[in-house]
């Protein structure tokens, strides 16, 4: 090939590569289409926190784009929605349908009702779902709770708490259930 044709050919190839790269970047940066309010699409600006007088925020469980792409993402969202609805509605029977038999056995109705009588949970976001085994998942999430100070953790006596937790979910009787486990012992929390 003649040297004077080489430079224009290199420029054409470079321009075409840049064009394809820009197109690919646009396609791959598009957020996943939101399904109602179930998927939390990151905003392009700063996200405003829920004002203090509106805490704990909405009670809809949302999935990050990452969590929504896990094969069990929709099932995780469904069981966690029922779990938090049960707490917010103070419905022990619904709660027992969302947790493992072991957890039900360790949490009698009277204790559960006492523990959650003033609790409200909201601003619930599942950040990541990880498969631990074919029957067990680890769910990394955040939420906000409001409660009477007397019902707050001993380590943080506050009426409003931002939680960062890991919940273990276990397959039981063909459904996912919130379980007990060491995953939950790593909870972190701060006052609102």
Outline the structure in words:
The chain is of the alpha/beta class and 192 residues long. 34% of the residues lie in helices and 27% in strands. The chain has helices at 3-29, 65-68, 73-88, 92-96, 101-106, 109-116; strands spanning 39-40, 61-64, 120-133, 136-146, 160-172, 175-178, 188-191. Strands 1, 2, 3, 4, 5, 6 and 7 form a 7-stranded mixed beta sheet that branches. The termini are far apart. The relative contact order is 0.13. Mean pLDDT is 81; it is low at 12-36 and 42-47.
Radius of gyration: 23 Å
Tell me how many strands there are: 7
- Helices, by number, come to 6
H and E order: HEEHHHHHEEEEE
- Overall shape: it is globular
Task: State the assembly state of the protein chains.
Answer: single chain
Spans of at least 5 consecutive residues whose pLDDT stays below 50 are: 12-36, 42-47
Name the structural class.
Answer: alpha/beta
Percent range of helical residues: 25-40%
Roughly what fraction of the amino acids lie in strands? 25-35%
How many strands, which pairing sense, and closed or not: the largest β-sheet?
A: 7 strands, mixed
Summarize model confidence as the mean pLDDT: 81
- Distance from N terminus to C terminus (CA atoms, Å) equals 69 Å
């Amino acid at each position: 090939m003649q040297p004077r044709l080489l430079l224009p050919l290199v420029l054409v190839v470079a321009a075409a590569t840049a064009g394809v790269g820009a197109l690919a970047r646009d396609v791959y940066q598009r957020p996943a289409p939101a399904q109602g309010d179930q998927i939390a699409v990151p905003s392009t600006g700063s996200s405003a926190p829920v004002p203090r007088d509106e805490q704990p925020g909405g009670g809809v469980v949302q999935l990050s784009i990452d969590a929504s792409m896990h094969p069990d993402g929709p099932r995780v969202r469904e069981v966690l929605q029922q779990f938090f609805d049960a707490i917010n509605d103070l419905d022990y029977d619904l709660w027992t349908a969302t947790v493992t038999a072991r957890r039900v056995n360790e949490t009698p109705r009277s204790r559960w009702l006492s523990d959650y009588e003033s609790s409200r949970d909201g601003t619930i976001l599942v950040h990541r779902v990880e498969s631990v085994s074919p029957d067990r998942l680890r769910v990394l999430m955040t939420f906000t709770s409001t409660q009477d100070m007397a019902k707050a953790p001993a380590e943080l006596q506050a009426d409003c708490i931002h939680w960062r937790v890991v919940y273990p979910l276990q397959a039981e009787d063909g459904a996912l259930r919130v379980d007990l486990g060491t995953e939950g012992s790593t909870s972190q929390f701060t006052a609102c």
